[in-house]
Amino acid sequence: EVQLVESGGGLVQPGRSLRLSCAASGFTFDDYAMHWVRQPPGKGLEWVSGISWNSGSISYADSVKGRFTISRDNAKNSLYLQMNSLRAEDTALYYCAKVREGKYSSTWYGGFDYWGQGTLVTVSS
Amino acid sequence: DIQMTQSPSSLSASVGDRVTITCRASQSISKYLHWYQEKPGKAPNLLIYAASSLQSGVPSRFSGSGSGTDFTLTISTLQPEDFATYYCQQSYSIPRTFGQGTKVEIK
After folding, report:
1. Is A72 buried (19+), middle (13-18) or exposed (0-12) by CB count in 10 A?
2. DSSP string of chain A?
3. What distance in Å separates residue A13's CA from the closest CA in chain B?
4. Using CA atoms, how far apart are residues B93 and A107, in angstroms rounded to an integer?
5. Scanning every residue of chain B, which has its alpha carbon at the shortest distance from the alpha carbon of A60?
6. Are the Cβ atoms of A109 and B49 closer than 8 angstroms?
7. Residue B97 sits at the chain A interface (C-beta within 8 Å)
8. Is any Cβ of chain A less than 8 angstroms from the Cβ of B17?
9. Which of A29, A84, B22, B74 has the maximal Cβ count within 10 Å?
10. pLDDT at A106 over 90
11. What are the start-end ranges of the H helices in B62-106?
12. 8 Å CB contact of B50 and A111
C-alpha cells in the first residue's frame, strides 16, 4: 500500500525557517517524481515545487522561488522542503504528492495519484 | 503561466442528477489535464488523468473529455458521497497550475 506521511509543520514566526519531510513507502520511491502542493486555510490548491526521480530536474512556483528548496534522499525514501524567510502568506496545509507515471512508463501525463494527509504550517508572530 | 478557469465555482444538485464541470486553459495543453476530488479533512483524490482516462478504483460514473483548451468532468448519476470540491490541474508546463475549484453541494 502506498503511503506518504508528511511531518515538520508547526507555528513559526515570519522570517524564520522550517523543514518539511515526507516519508514514502509501498512503492519504488526512486522511480517517481515527487511534488509539494499547498492549500491555505479555506482556499484552493497551489502547486509549490517538484523534483524528478534523480533530482536532475527541479522546479518552483514563483511565489517560493529563492526561499524554498526541494530535495530528496532516495536511500531514505524521503522528500523534503526547506522553507526559509517564511511569510504569513505561506500559511497552509502542505501536501507531498507522487506522480502517477514512473521513469519507465511509456507515456507520461503527470497527474498526482497519491497524496499524503498534509502537515500544517502557520506563519505568525 | 497557464491559467486554469473552472466553471461554475459552485453548484447545487440532487442525488441522481447529471453534473458537468468545465475547465478552460489559457493556452493549449493537449491532454495534460487531470481532475481531483477533495473532501473536507481529506487529501485530494485523482479521478481522471490525461483528460479522459479513469484512474484505477474510481467509479465509472465519473468521466472526462476534452483536449487543447476546453475540458469537462461529468458525473453521470450523482451519489451522496460525490458532494465535494473538484479541481482541474494542468501538467503541460511549469508551474503546474490548478483551477480554483468547483464545490458541489446538496440541493
Report:
1. buried
2. --EEEEE--EEE-TT--EEEEEEEESS-GGGS-EEEEEE-TTS--EEEEEE-TTSS-EEE-TTTTTTEEEEEEGGGTEEEEEE-S--GGG-EEEEEEEESS-TT-SS----EEEE---EEEEE--
3. 25
4. 16
5. B95
6. yes
7. yes
8. no
9. A29
10. no
11. none
12. yes
Interface residue B11 vs chain A (CB under 8 A): no
Q: What is the mean pLDDT of residues A16-20?
A: 98
Q: Determine the Cα–Cα distance for residues A102 and B106; give it in Å rounded to an integer.
A: 38
**pLDDT (tens digit per residue) in A35-91:** 999 999 999 999 999 999 999 999 999 999 999 999 999 999 999 999 999 999 999
What CA–CA distance (Å, rounded) separates A89 from A41? Answer: 10
Cα of A111 to nearest chain B Cα, Å: 6
